[in-house]
From TrEMBL:
Keyword NAD (UniProt): yes
Record's protein name: Glutamate dehydrogenase
Source organism, top-level taxon: Bacteria
Gene from which this protein is expressed: gdhA
Residues the entry annotates as binding NAD(+): T224, N255
Source species of the chain: Bhargavaea cecembensis DSE10
């Protein structure tokens, strides 16, 4: 018996040493890339027990290989505004891991985009895509271009210049971009139209998030938000709870936020707050979703204008204090690191029961640690917001078949994917001794699916 314990202890030490050594290597190779290093550390910390049980992963250098992108593309994007002035932005595509299928991940147009942001998003995408169970690899891209305040013609010219370069590196069986912050069906439409012109071919499967009239999938716009709520419902149900009557705060007011609010309201939640990059609104009577949709989807106005139609609501400049509003359910859907330790402490003090991430890495590590220590139900982004990429993969399938599913069919398939993801996370966490820790469950389940395929494929 003592010999068995000694062997297990040595395996644990070897695993810890291996993970530590690889992380130190990543830090040396990627100095100053704080978002990327944050994402890597969070996943690495979960994987120590995996390497203790699977020394073949150490032998085959899986961690060193999976953390290094297969390809990084950076390029100049030159475009002209309506006044004839020339502007230059920087474009990116990180083709991170193609073990399970073509690279798949969104394009983000935002001034904050840089190497670190794109790499963190691409790294997370590997495991998120693996969790869906669908045959897609991980990638991400974007540009430090800000669509806000630009005319449709200016955005069109930027998108055409961007895809002129990126078209050399993408394709239905190679790399399939989609939307993200700053990139919706308008931007996808401009890029897809120009891509067709460049290729002289209708390769519908090269982009997802297209307008349904141009080969897009019904239900794609709603998928991330709906999927987030489906996951939250499963997480609550696992602990004998539900959404009915629960006070809910949702940050953001883009597609993810709007459709998370819509589905949460369908389940009986009382959604009382949402935000944009300028500030947040609080409506104790419950957010009027039709007003939000009119402001954000139709008129492209700021969220502060909500109070013009609902004077009993309040608007506050700045976004951080949205988490001071008492709620039982929190759905951060805006951007990375929007919720810190102080905000987490305030949420817990005010009676938080559960939090699920609609954005990518919206909670910093200190906030996550606090939630887990306090027994708050926590749904990590790579599991909770995987509905968007799941329906993107369904769009790829429909494009390949030259066929379209109904919105109901897509929604039923999405619901099943989110139920399966939650089940997989729960079972994997328990298998490795971390009962009810969905962060560890998601990280290990996603990693093992990719790692096993990498071992089977040999060195590449």
């Amino acid at each position: 018996m003592q010999m068995v314990r000694d062997v297990k202890e040595e395996a644990r030490r070897n695993a810890n040493d291996y993970v530590h050594q690889v992380f130190e290597l990543v830090k040396r190779r990627n100095p100053g890339q704080k978002e990327f290093l944050q994402a890597v550390r969070e996943i690495f910390d979960s994987l120590r027990p995996v390497f203790a049980q699977h020394p073949e992963y150490i032998r085959d250098g899986i961690l060193e290989r999976i953390v290094e992108p297969e390809r990084i593309i950076s390029f100049r994007v030159t475009w002209e505004d309506d006044n004839g002035k020339v502007h230059v932005n920087r474009g990116y595509r990180v083709q991170y891991n193609s073990t399970l299928g073509p690279y798949k991940g969104g394009l983000r147009f935002h001034p904050s985009v840089n190497d670190s942001i794109i790499k963190f998003l691409g790294f997370e995408q590997i495991f998120k895509n693996a969790l869906t169970g669908l045959p897609i690899g991980g990638g991400k891209g974007g540009a430090d271009f800000d669509p806000k305040g630009k005319t449709d013609r200016e955005i069109m010219r930027f998108c055409q210049s961007f895809i002129t370069e990126l078209s050399k590196h993408v394709g239905p069986d190679t790399d399939v971009p989609a939307g993200d912050i700053g990139v919706g069906k308008r931007e996808i439409g401009y890029m897809f139209g120009h891509y067709k012109r460049l290729r002289n071919a209708y390769e519908a499967g090269v982009f997802t998030g297209k307008d349904p009239e141009s080969g897009g999938s019904l239900g794609r716009k709603e998928a991330t938000g709906y999927g987030l709520v489906y996951f939250t419902v499963e997480m609550l149900k696992h602990h004998g709870l539900d959404l009915e009557g629960k006070t809910t705060v949702v940050s953001g007011s883009g597609n993810v936020s709007i459709y998370a609010m819509e589905k949460a309201i369908e389940y009986g939640a009382e959604v009382v707050a949402c935000s944009d990059s300028n500030g947040y609104i609080h409506d104790p009577a419950g957010i009027n979703l039709e007003t939000v949709k009119q402001l954000k989807e139709v008129e492209r106005r700021r969220i502060k204008d909500y109070i013009l139609f609902h004077p009993n609501a309040t608007y506050t400049e700045g976004c951080a204090d949205i988490w001071s509003i008492p709620c039982e359910i929190a759905l951060p859907c805006a951007t990375q690191n929007e919720l810190d330790e102080a905000s987490a402490a305030k949420l817990i003090e005010n009676g938080l029961i559960a939090i699920a991430e609609g954005a990518n890495m919206p909670c910093d590590q200190e906030a996550i640690d606090l939630f887990l220590e306090d027994g708050i139900l926590y749904g990590p982004a790579k599991a909770a917001n995987a509905g968007g990429v799941a329906v993107s993969a369904m769009e790829m399938s429909q494009n390949s078949m030259r066929y379209s599913w109904t919105e109901q069919e897509v929604n039923e398939k999405l619901h099943r994917v989110m139920i399966d993801i939650h089940k997989n996370c729960v079972e994997t966490a328990e298998q490795y001794g971390f009962k009810n820790n969905l962060m560890v469950g998601a990280n290990i389940a996603g990693f093992k699916k990719v790692a096993d395929a990498m071992v089977a494929h040999g060195l590449h």
